[in-house]
Design brief:
Helix content: 55-70%
Number of strands: 8
Radius of gyration: 25 Å
Order of helices and strands: HEEHEHEHEHEEEHHHHHHHHHHH
Largest sheet: 8 strands, mixed
Strand content: 5-15%
């Protein structure tokens, strides 16, 4: 297979998976696409936190058919290797694969040079592993080594642009999540070539550090190890109030930028005053426990105004749209629940949940949809009725999920109404704890 050549089969598969990916997400936002140069060889270098979802976030939403470099041990003989090559994934051999295997990298580098010479795109994760956390791992030397060796073999004529990329998910595995892909200003390999010729080791470290520094502002990076879970909880509970306090808009990108600032403040607190950080973490955890004890979520406690009116409107909307939910649930519940159950029971590392859900989704759902079409075809005499029914199924499924989320929120509002009306002292205690916690957090900024 010639990796540098445009592939029709790859393009067709990409269109289908892109549609499936759209059904999984609420929002897909690309930022900084103007930073991706035209007619230049590029290497896309994203952070890596969510297994297969990360390369999907890149390849589905750019114009390229990027060639990914992956560790060689995933290339098992037979179908897996054929599939990986079709997906434009090339093996990179490491010392742990055996010293005698390293010579096979010559072909990988030769193929990489062909991709770059044709102004194509390589892609590689600088961390060389996913963390399953909003926390960047230390960068390895793979990216600098590959670009320097590629330039060396091409007599320094490639002019490779490294595009630092940050990927942020509202949730790593939940259905109907949102994703933001930030493309940063490219790092020019040419700027490091003179240093590489003088001292290759020092230049490799310099480029590695420059790339790590360029990626960090493009994602959320909670540096604290001890208080990671707590800072994530603070972000979930207090993030909206922090954004409003700073005058931020309510959109997804503005909230991301606000959360970046909040995380930086919390990390600085952990470094400068660990005892205070511990105290705030304890208060946050206790508040979260108290909120959940009443079957609520923090956003209900934070914004209880007009709850009775919103409760009534939600119930009315649920009633009116119940037929839409029934249709979507009836024809989507079996594959959705089956996939969710399989993934949760069989996949131990939840960082892979979204990846396996995606793969199972674009294979299982079409089979189920065709079986359902066959089952109801007797009631659909015209061909365009059948086609319309089939086309409506994924959209109805997504609407049914939104209906379900609205139902959960309505139940929460009902519990809030009961608490405020019949357990006023408990409600007041809970509200006081929330205000005290927010007052302490407000003092940090």
């Amino acid at each position: 297979m010639k990796y540098e050549k445009w592939s029709l089969g790859y393009w067709l598969l990409k269109q289908y998976v892109r549609f499936v990916d759209w059904t999984i997400h609420d929002k897909i936002i690309l930022s900084g696409t103007d930073n991706i140069p035209n007619n230049k060889p590029i290497l896309i270098a994203p952070n890596h936190q969510n297994a297969l979802s990360d390369p999907m976030a890149i390849l589905l939403h750019t114009r390229f058919q990027p060639v990914w470099l992956a560790r060689a041990d995933i290339f098992k003989p037979g179908f897996i290797t054929l599939a990986l090559r079709f997906l434009k994934i090339m093996p990179v051999y490491r010392m742990r694969d055996g010293k005698d295997q390293l010579s096979k990298n010559d072909k990988t580098f030769a193929d990489s040079i062909k991709v770059l010479e044709n102004n194509g795109a390589l892609a590689l994760f600088p961390e060389a592993a996913h963390s399953a956390k909003r926390q960047m791992l230390s960068h390895k030397k793979a990216v600098p080594r590959i670009v320097f060796q590629a330039e060396e073999k091409a007599d320094n004529n490639l002019d490779i642009h490294i595009v630092p990329t940050g990927i942020y998910y509202s949730s790593y595995w939940k259905f109907n999540r949102s994703v933001l892909v930030n493309f940063g200003k490219p790092i020019l390999v040419n700027d490091f070539l003179d240093a590489y010729h003088e001292n290759s080791s020092a230049a490799t470290l310099a480029l590695r550090d420059a790339l790590e520094k360029a990626i960090e502002p493009l994602t959320i990076n909670i540096k604290s190890k001890e208080h990671y879970e707590c800072f994530e909880l603070i972000r979930a509970i207090y993030g909206k109030a922090f954004a409003q306090k700073a005058g931020r808009q309510a959109d997804f990108v503005s909230r991301f930028e606000s959360d970046q600032r909040l995380v930086k403040i919390l990390d600085e607190l952990d470094n400068n005053s660990p005892q205070k950080a511990e105290k705030i973490c304890n208060a946050t955890k206790q508040f979260d426990t108290d909120v959940r004890k009443h079957g609520l979520r923090s956003w209900l406690v934070e914004n209880p105004e007009n709850n009775f009116l919103k409760l009534g409107l939600n119930k009315l909307l649920l009633l009116i749209t119940l037929p839409v939910f029934a249709f979507g649930f009836l024809f989507n519940a079996i594959p959705f629940i089956a996939i969710d159950t399989i993934v949760r029971k069989k996949i131990k590392d939840f960082a892979f949940w979204s990846s396996f859900s995606l793969v199972l989704g674009f294979t299982l759902f079409p089979i189920v949809y065709l079986l359902e079409l066959w089952a109801v075809s007797g009631w659909l005499p015209l061909w365009w009725h059948k086609l319309l029914f089939l086309a409506l199924l994924p959209f109805a499924g997504k609407l049914a999920f939104r209906w379900y989320i609205l139902l959960l929120k309505t139940i929460g509002r009902g519990r809030l109404f009961i608490l405020k009306t019949f357990r006023k002292q408990q409600w007041q205690n809970l509200k006081n704890k929330q205000e005290q916690l927010f007052d302490e957090l407000n003092k940090l900024s």
